[in-house]
Specification:
α1 packs antiparallel against α3 and α1 runs parallel beside α11. It is built from 14 helices and 17 strands. Strands 16-15-14-13-12-11-10-9-17 form a nine-stranded antiparallel β-sheet. Strands 1, 2, 3, 4, 5, 6, 7 and 8 form an eight-stranded mixed β-sheet that branches. The protein is globular and about 70 Å long. The protein is an alpha+beta fold and about 475 residues long. β1, α1 and β2 form a beta-alpha-beta unit.
Length: about 475
């Protein structure tokens, strides 16, 4: 197995896991891709939601184990009501919930162990918390971190109360920093690898929750810009009189279109599997076109594009492998994001495959789509790649799409034809997988249509969006 941490003779590298609520399941997919690429880290830093993944790594979990933990996590573990008395005085309560379930359910399920974190020596790990007394960020090293530090680090104000540790109040550092790049610089790293899940949206939306998210985005991205300026200054000073000076570089893995927000995760509009698949695919794409000199350290580094309308839905198929001598159960999951921009429409596809030959679910990458006409309707063909035991396999699935009305009623995506070729081009799977009527109806119910415009997203708009999806590529 590739060692994700020790860096040998290369430049010292830091992995910076920023916040993003529960959406940081996305980061687990990124980590799987980084491990496959053999990119090694000497230091891992976590802020806000990124503390969960930093804690898992420091507890000895490898990226594939982390992804599996996120896929099987019951989200109810994040919800823990405060005392009844606190709700009688809503204007005096420190938070609408407490951290009991995170301590008792989420941390144990994710495999976060403070004792393991304290004694691990594979890499330097730091966990960022806000010291409320000094209004500053403290990066707590792994050898000195306590469970209360981890809880404080994910205790977002209003939603969860601050934690008192040795007489000092601590809380989530997100309002000051959501990614501590300067801690990585202090660690001596020359390559800073930032995994950004929180978003950087261009449109100011209405509604209290959207604006709360905007405030976090403004704080997080504003602090990044300040860190960029400090790093640029450090590079300029360090280069004076040094012909072979090695500048600090920044690499950023992020979604092109913003990730769904936490309420979508809670209400199953998106799930951990889909977030992991997105993170994996985005990381694989970034690594294939990585800028040698790193990012430019400006507002563009974390910027997202935002479509006018975004329609998201899933399809989950199951069946048996087509090998007559050994027919075993398998599962194939698809997640679509159909974006309508003013200039043109775009389709994002993410997938994962659970095979009998693999212990863990395998995320796909390099997805391409093609639409063609057939007697039964329009045929959708999705080609992708998948890594199995370090080798690249090709996957192709095809299905028939009829019309927007049937698609809206859950009458499409009944089955797919799945073929898979090994690295030598040998066909190893040729199967038909099916999606149950229950799963199709659930897919319709949990589908999501969002807009950044002041327009309705009712049935009429859903029909027109589905029509555009079916006609995409023609």
């Amino acid at each position: 197995m590739v060692n994700l941490y020790k860096n040998g003779n290369n430049s010292k590298k830091s992995l910076i896991l920023a916040g993003g609520g529960m959406r940081v399941a996305y980061q687990a997919g990124v980590l799987v891709a980084l491990e496959e690429a053999g990119i090694h880290f000497d230091h891992v830093d976590g802020t806000s939601g990124g503390i969960f993944n930093t804690g898992m790594l420091a507890s000895g979990k490898n990226p594939k184990e982390m992804a599996e933990k996120w896929r099987t996590l019951n989200l109810s573990g994040f919800m823990s009501a405060g005392s009844a008395k606190s709700y009688l005085k809503p204007f005096k309560t420190q938070g609408f919930a407490d951290a009991d379930n995170i301590r008792k359910k989420v941390f144990p399920h994710l495999g976060i162990s403070v004792s393991q974190i304290n004694k691990q020596e594979k890499f330097a790990a730091t966990f960022n918390v806000c010291n409320f007394s000094t209004k500053s960020v403290e990066a707590i090293p792994s050898e000195g971190v306590k469970e209360d530090h981890l809880i404080a680090g994910v205790s977002l104000p209003i939603f969860m109360p601050a934690i008192q540790i040795e007489g000092t109040w601590y809380t989530d550092a997100v309002w000051i920093k959501d990614a501590n790049l300067m801690e990585a610089v202090r660690q001596g790293s020359k390559e800073l690898w930032l995994v950004w899940a929180i978003g950087n949206s261009p449109t100011y939306l209405g509604g209290a929750f959207n604006q709360y998210v905007h405030m976090i985005e403004m704080s997080a991205n504003g602090a990044l810009l300040e860190d960029y300026n400090q790093i640029k200054l450090t590079n300029e000073i360090g280069a004076i009189g040094q012909s072979e000076f090695e500048p600090i570089k920044l690499f950023v893995i992020k979604p092109d279109i913003p990730l769904p927000l936490d309420p979508d995760f809670f209400f199953n509009k998106v799930n951990a599997r889909e977030l992991i698949n997105m993170g994996y695919a985005h990381a694989k794409k970034y690594l294939s076109t990585i800028p040698p000199q790193g990012e430019s350290m400006d507002v563009v580094a974390t910027q997202n594009r935002e479509p006018d309308f975004l329609y998201s839905f899933r399809a989950t198929f199951s069946g048996r492998s087509g090998n007559p001598s050994k027919t075993e159960k398998m599962k194939y999951s698809l997640y679509f994001r159909f974006a309508e921009f003013r200039e043109k429409n775009e389709l994002e596809v993410y997938s994962s495959l659970k095979l009998p030959i693999s212990t863990y679910e395998i995320s796909g990458f390099d997805h391409t789509t093609a639409f063609s006409n057939s007697k039964s309707g329009k045929q959708l063909e999705i080609q992708s790649s998948a890594m199995v035991d370090g080798k690249a396999y090709k996957v192709m699935v095809t299905t028939i799409l009829t019309n927007q009305i049937e698609m809206f009623l859950g009458l499409n995506f009944k089955q797919i034809k799945l073929k898979m070729w090994d690295e030598n081009g040998k066909l190893i799977l040729d199967s038909i997988l099916y999606q149950s009527i229950i799963d199709r109806l659930k897919a319709v119910y949990f589908s999501s249509l969002k807009t950044t415009l002041n327009q309705r997203t009712g049935i009429r708009k859903r029909f027109s969006t589905l029509k555009n999806f079916i006609n995409y590529g023609f």
